[in-house]
Specification:
Keywords: ATP-binding, Cytoplasm, Kinase, Nucleotide-binding, Pyrimidine biosynthesis, Transferase. Homohexamer. With 237 residues, the protein is an alpha/beta fold. 43% of the residues lie in helices and 14% in strands. The two termini are 14 Å apart. The structure holds adenosine-5'-diphosphate (ADP) and uridine-5'-diphosphate (UDP).
Amino acid sequence: MRVVISIGGSVLAPNLDARRVEGHASVVETLAREGCEIGAVVGGGGVARDYIGAARDLGANEVQLDQIGIDVTRINARLLIAALGSQVDPKVPHDYEDAGDAIRRGDISVMGGVMPGQTTDAVAAALAEYVDADLLVYATSVDGVFSADPNEDDDATKFEEMTASELVDVIGDIEMNAGSSAPVDLLAAKLIERAKMRTIVLDGTDPERIEPAVLRGEHTGTDIIPEGGDEPTYWAQ
Ligand SMILES: Nc1ncnc2c1ncn2[C@@H]1O[C@H](COP(=O)(O)OP(=O)(O)O)[C@@H](O)[C@H]1O
Ligand SMILES: O=c1ccn([C@@H]2O[C@H](COP(=O)(O)OP(=O)(O)O)[C@@H](O)[C@H]2O)c(=O)[nH]1
Protein backbone atom coordinates (compact mmCIF):
# COMPACT_ATOMS: atom_id res chain seq x y z
CA MET A 1 0.00 0.00 0.00
CA ARG A 2 1.28 3.52 -0.82
CA VAL A 3 0.64 6.04 1.92
CA VAL A 4 1.50 9.68 2.56
CA ILE A 5 1.74 10.64 6.22
CA SER A 6 1.68 14.29 7.27
CA ILE A 7 3.33 14.60 10.68
CA GLY A 8 2.29 17.95 12.12
CA GLY A 9 5.00 20.07 13.62
CA SER A 10 2.84 20.28 16.75
CA VAL A 11 3.32 16.53 17.27
CA LEU A 12 6.80 16.01 15.82
CA ALA A 13 8.49 19.12 17.22
CA PRO A 14 6.39 21.25 19.55
CA ASN A 15 9.87 21.63 21.03
CA LEU A 16 13.06 19.79 20.15
CA ASP A 17 13.13 16.25 21.60
CA ALA A 18 15.13 13.48 19.89
CA ARG A 19 13.10 10.75 21.63
CA ARG A 20 9.84 12.12 20.24
CA VAL A 21 11.29 12.20 16.72
CA GLU A 22 12.56 8.64 17.26
CA GLY A 23 9.03 7.56 18.19
CA HIS A 24 7.65 8.80 14.87
CA ALA A 25 10.56 7.29 12.94
CA SER A 26 9.91 3.92 14.57
CA VAL A 27 6.29 3.88 13.35
CA VAL A 28 7.33 4.88 9.83
CA GLU A 29 9.92 2.06 9.79
CA THR A 30 7.32 -0.44 11.05
CA LEU A 31 4.96 0.52 8.23
CA ALA A 32 7.81 0.15 5.72
CA ARG A 33 8.57 -3.32 7.09
CA GLU A 34 4.86 -4.15 6.64
CA GLY A 35 5.34 -3.40 2.95
CA CYS A 36 4.04 0.17 2.79
CA GLU A 37 5.59 2.63 0.34
CA ILE A 38 5.85 5.84 2.34
CA GLY A 39 6.04 9.55 1.72
CA ALA A 40 6.25 11.61 4.91
CA VAL A 41 5.73 15.37 5.19
CA VAL A 42 6.66 17.21 8.38
CA GLY A 43 5.57 20.59 9.70
CA GLY A 44 7.36 23.44 11.44
CA GLY A 45 6.12 23.17 15.03
CA GLY A 46 7.11 25.45 17.86
CA VAL A 47 10.46 26.52 16.43
CA ALA A 48 8.79 27.70 13.20
CA ARG A 49 6.33 29.77 15.19
CA ASP A 50 9.12 31.29 17.28
CA TYR A 51 10.99 32.40 14.19
CA ILE A 52 7.78 33.57 12.43
CA GLY A 53 6.82 35.58 15.52
CA ALA A 54 10.23 37.25 15.73
CA ALA A 55 10.31 38.03 12.01
CA ARG A 56 6.75 39.42 12.14
CA ASP A 57 7.91 41.79 14.90
CA LEU A 58 10.69 42.86 12.54
CA GLY A 59 8.16 43.78 9.86
CA ALA A 60 8.52 40.80 7.50
CA ASN A 61 5.54 40.27 5.18
CA GLU A 62 3.53 37.02 5.10
CA VAL A 63 5.45 35.58 2.16
CA GLN A 64 8.76 36.20 3.91
CA LEU A 65 7.28 34.60 7.04
CA ASP A 66 6.15 31.61 5.00
CA GLN A 67 9.67 31.24 3.61
CA ILE A 68 11.06 31.16 7.15
CA GLY A 69 8.47 28.55 8.07
CA ILE A 70 9.41 26.45 5.05
CA ASP A 71 13.06 26.50 6.05
CA VAL A 72 12.18 25.23 9.54
CA THR A 73 9.96 22.45 8.14
CA ARG A 74 12.93 21.33 6.04
CA ILE A 75 15.17 21.25 9.10
CA ASN A 76 12.54 19.12 10.87
CA ALA A 77 12.52 16.84 7.81
CA ARG A 78 16.28 16.38 8.27
CA LEU A 79 15.66 15.47 11.92
CA LEU A 80 13.25 12.70 10.90
CA ILE A 81 15.65 11.54 8.15
CA ALA A 82 18.41 11.31 10.77
CA ALA A 83 16.20 9.04 12.87
CA LEU A 84 15.22 6.77 9.97
CA GLY A 85 17.42 3.84 8.91
CA SER A 86 19.13 3.27 5.58
CA GLN A 87 15.91 3.03 3.58
CA VAL A 88 15.25 6.76 3.65
CA ASP A 89 16.25 9.17 0.88
CA PRO A 90 18.89 11.35 2.61
CA LYS A 91 17.79 14.42 0.66
CA VAL A 92 14.80 16.59 1.55
CA PRO A 93 13.03 16.89 -1.83
CA HIS A 94 12.31 20.38 -3.16
CA ASP A 95 9.47 19.13 -5.35
CA TYR A 96 7.03 16.27 -5.83
CA GLU A 97 8.99 14.71 -8.70
CA ASP A 98 12.05 14.11 -6.54
CA ALA A 99 9.87 12.74 -3.74
CA GLY A 100 7.99 10.52 -6.21
CA ASP A 101 11.25 9.20 -7.69
CA ALA A 102 12.49 8.21 -4.21
CA ILE A 103 9.22 6.46 -3.33
CA ARG A 104 9.21 4.59 -6.65
CA ARG A 105 12.81 3.49 -5.92
CA GLY A 106 11.49 1.96 -2.68
CA ASP A 107 12.96 4.65 -0.41
CA ILE A 108 11.05 6.52 2.27
CA SER A 109 10.86 10.17 1.23
CA VAL A 110 10.59 12.97 3.82
CA MET A 111 9.41 16.40 2.64
CA GLY A 112 9.02 19.75 4.33
CA GLY A 113 7.34 22.81 2.83
CA VAL A 114 7.69 23.82 -0.80
CA MET A 115 6.19 27.26 -1.48
CA PRO A 116 4.63 30.26 0.33
CA GLY A 117 0.87 30.61 0.68
CA GLN A 118 0.12 27.16 2.04
CA THR A 119 1.18 24.74 4.78
CA THR A 120 2.63 21.23 4.80
CA ASP A 121 -0.98 19.99 4.82
CA ALA A 122 -1.18 21.01 1.16
CA VAL A 123 2.24 19.49 0.43
CA ALA A 124 1.01 16.14 1.78
CA ALA A 125 -2.22 16.30 -0.25
CA ALA A 126 -0.36 17.22 -3.45
CA LEU A 127 2.25 14.49 -2.89
CA ALA A 128 -0.51 11.93 -2.26
CA GLU A 129 -2.19 12.91 -5.53
CA TYR A 130 1.11 12.99 -7.43
CA VAL A 131 2.16 9.47 -6.37
CA ASP A 132 -1.42 8.15 -6.57
CA ALA A 133 -1.35 7.16 -2.91
CA ASP A 134 -3.94 4.75 -1.52
CA LEU A 135 -4.23 6.75 1.68
CA LEU A 136 -3.34 10.14 3.17
CA VAL A 137 -2.99 10.45 6.94
CA TYR A 138 -2.75 13.69 8.92
CA ALA A 139 -1.17 13.08 12.33
CA THR A 140 -2.06 16.31 14.10
CA SER A 141 -2.61 17.60 17.64
CA VAL A 142 -6.35 16.91 17.83
CA ASP A 143 -8.20 13.66 17.28
CA GLY A 144 -9.95 14.63 14.09
CA VAL A 145 -11.82 17.46 12.40
CA PHE A 146 -14.32 19.28 14.61
CA SER A 147 -17.19 21.67 13.90
CA ALA A 148 -14.94 24.40 15.39
CA ASP A 149 -11.58 24.64 17.14
CA PRO A 150 -12.03 22.28 20.14
CA ASN A 151 -9.33 24.19 22.01
CA GLU A 152 -11.43 27.36 21.70
CA ASP A 153 -15.02 26.11 21.63
CA ASP A 154 -16.23 23.61 24.24
CA ASP A 155 -19.31 22.95 22.11
CA ALA A 156 -17.25 21.83 19.12
CA THR A 157 -18.27 18.35 17.99
CA LYS A 158 -16.05 15.84 16.19
CA PHE A 159 -16.87 14.51 12.73
CA GLU A 160 -16.38 10.74 12.76
CA GLU A 161 -16.75 10.80 9.01
CA MET A 162 -17.14 13.57 6.42
CA THR A 163 -16.82 14.21 2.69
CA ALA A 164 -14.02 16.34 1.28
CA SER A 165 -16.50 19.08 0.35
CA GLU A 166 -17.78 19.11 3.96
CA LEU A 167 -14.14 19.47 5.04
CA VAL A 168 -13.74 22.46 2.72
CA ASP A 169 -16.82 24.07 4.30
CA VAL A 170 -15.69 23.45 7.88
CA ILE A 171 -12.13 24.75 7.60
CA GLY A 172 -12.85 27.41 4.95
CA ASP A 173 -12.97 30.28 7.47
CA ILE A 174 -9.70 29.48 9.27
CA GLU A 175 -7.16 32.27 8.67
CA MET A 176 -4.15 31.47 6.52
CA ASN A 177 -1.43 33.60 8.09
CA ALA A 178 2.06 32.18 8.41
CA GLY A 179 2.07 29.84 11.38
CA SER A 180 -1.72 29.65 11.72
CA SER A 181 -3.26 26.44 13.10
CA ALA A 182 -5.65 24.15 11.28
CA PRO A 183 -6.00 20.36 11.19
CA VAL A 184 -5.94 20.57 7.37
CA ASP A 185 -5.44 23.79 5.39
CA LEU A 186 -7.91 24.97 2.75
CA LEU A 187 -5.73 24.16 -0.24
CA ALA A 188 -5.16 20.66 1.13
CA ALA A 189 -8.92 20.20 1.49
CA LYS A 190 -9.51 21.26 -2.11
CA LEU A 191 -6.74 18.93 -3.34
CA ILE A 192 -8.23 16.05 -1.33
CA GLU A 193 -11.62 16.82 -2.91
CA ARG A 194 -10.37 16.91 -6.51
CA ALA A 195 -8.13 13.83 -6.06
CA LYS A 196 -10.90 11.88 -4.27
CA MET A 197 -8.10 10.99 -1.83
CA ARG A 198 -9.04 8.66 1.01
CA THR A 199 -7.86 10.62 4.08
CA ILE A 200 -7.70 10.16 7.85
CA VAL A 201 -7.18 12.98 10.38
CA LEU A 202 -6.08 11.66 13.78
CA ASP A 203 -4.25 12.66 16.94
CA GLY A 204 -0.63 11.78 16.26
CA THR A 205 0.67 12.94 19.63
CA ASP A 206 1.24 9.25 20.33
CA PRO A 207 2.68 8.03 16.99
CA GLU A 208 1.59 4.46 17.84
CA ARG A 209 -1.91 5.50 16.74
CA ILE A 210 -0.72 5.87 13.14
CA GLU A 211 0.05 2.19 12.48
CA PRO A 212 -3.44 0.65 13.06
CA ALA A 213 -4.99 3.52 11.14
CA VAL A 214 -2.80 2.88 8.10
CA LEU A 215 -2.80 -0.93 8.20
CA ARG A 216 -6.40 -1.55 9.29
CA GLY A 217 -8.29 1.73 9.14
CA GLU A 218 -8.63 1.59 12.93
CA HIS A 219 -8.62 5.00 14.64
CA THR A 220 -10.79 7.40 16.64
CA GLY A 221 -10.24 10.43 14.43
CA THR A 222 -12.06 11.55 11.28
CA ASP A 223 -12.48 9.56 8.08
CA ILE A 224 -12.65 11.76 5.01
CA ILE A 225 -14.46 9.68 2.43
CA PRO A 226 -14.02 10.62 -1.22
CA GLU A 227 -17.37 11.33 -2.85
CA GLY A 228 -18.15 8.39 -5.07
CA GLY A 229 -15.13 6.61 -3.63
CA ASP A 230 -15.36 3.12 -2.13
CA GLU A 231 -13.88 1.87 1.12
CA PRO A 232 -10.30 0.82 0.24
CA THR A 233 -10.16 -2.89 -0.56
CA TYR A 234 -7.01 -3.41 1.53
CA TRP A 235 -9.10 -3.01 4.67
CA ALA A 236 -11.68 -5.47 3.41
CA GLN A 237 -9.84 -8.49 4.82
N1 LIG B 1 -12.29 22.66 13.00
C1 LIG B 1 -11.18 22.26 13.67
N2 LIG B 1 -11.04 20.96 14.01
C2 LIG B 1 -9.94 20.55 14.68
N3 LIG B 1 -8.91 21.36 15.06
C3 LIG B 1 -9.03 22.68 14.74
C4 LIG B 1 -10.15 23.18 14.04
N4 LIG B 1 -9.98 24.52 13.86
C5 LIG B 1 -8.79 24.84 14.41
N5 LIG B 1 -8.22 23.75 14.95
C6 LIG B 1 -6.92 23.78 15.62
O1 LIG B 1 -5.95 23.24 14.72
C7 LIG B 1 -4.92 22.66 15.54
C8 LIG B 1 -4.10 21.73 14.68
O2 LIG B 1 -3.40 22.57 13.77
P1 LIG B 1 -1.81 22.74 13.93
O3 LIG B 1 -1.50 23.21 15.27
O4 LIG B 1 -1.35 23.54 12.76
O5 LIG B 1 -1.37 21.23 13.82
P2 LIG B 1 -0.27 20.57 12.89
O6 LIG B 1 1.00 20.71 13.65
O7 LIG B 1 -0.74 19.17 12.77
O8 LIG B 1 -0.29 21.30 11.57
C9 LIG B 1 -5.69 21.98 16.63
O9 LIG B 1 -4.86 21.81 17.77
C10 LIG B 1 -6.85 22.95 16.89
O10 LIG B 1 -6.53 23.80 17.98
O1 LIG C 1 4.63 24.50 1.70
C1 LIG C 1 4.67 25.22 2.74
C2 LIG C 1 4.78 24.69 4.05
C3 LIG C 1 4.85 25.54 5.14
N1 LIG C 1 4.82 26.90 4.94
C4 LIG C 1 4.99 27.85 6.06
O2 LIG C 1 5.60 27.18 7.15
C5 LIG C 1 4.74 27.26 8.30
C6 LIG C 1 4.88 25.97 9.10
O3 LIG C 1 4.36 24.88 8.32
P1 LIG C 1 3.07 24.10 8.90
O4 LIG C 1 2.02 25.09 9.26
O5 LIG C 1 2.67 23.06 7.92
O6 LIG C 1 3.65 23.45 10.22
P2 LIG C 1 2.80 22.82 11.44
O7 LIG C 1 1.48 23.54 11.50
O8 LIG C 1 2.65 21.38 11.10
O9 LIG C 1 3.67 23.08 12.63
C7 LIG C 1 3.36 27.47 7.71
O10 LIG C 1 2.46 28.04 8.66
C8 LIG C 1 3.66 28.41 6.56
O11 LIG C 1 3.85 29.73 7.05
C9 LIG C 1 4.68 27.43 3.66
O12 LIG C 1 4.60 28.65 3.48
N2 LIG C 1 4.60 26.57 2.60
